[in-house]
Design a protein that fits this description.
alpha/beta, 3-stranded parallel beta sheet, 3 strands
């Protein structure tokens, strides 16, 4: 009797992956997006607060964040 192994099939939520880019510099966000969009879906946010909203909504596979990335000005002023 011949036994053959089958590859393990793991269902993927999104086969191409989703990357969230958080950076306050629009040029950096655009550059990273242009590079990554060839291989995956890219979401962007301009500050930490917006990034958290996108993170909750899209559940990305990877987050790239500028350190230190500022929060919204309104959030900083209220503290």
């Amino acid at each position: 009797m011949k036994i053959t192994a089958k590859p393990l099939s793991v269902p993927s939520r999104n086969p191409v992956g989703v990357v969230l880019v958080i950076d306050d510099d629009a040029g950096v966000r655009r550059s990273i997006s242009l590079i990554l969009k060839k291989a995956c879906l890219v979401e962007t946010a301009e500050d930490v607060d917006s990034g958290l909203e996108v993170l909750k909504a899209s559940n990305p596979d990877l987050v790239i964040i500028d350190y230190p990335c500022p929060a919204r000005m309104a959030s900083r002023e209220s503290n």
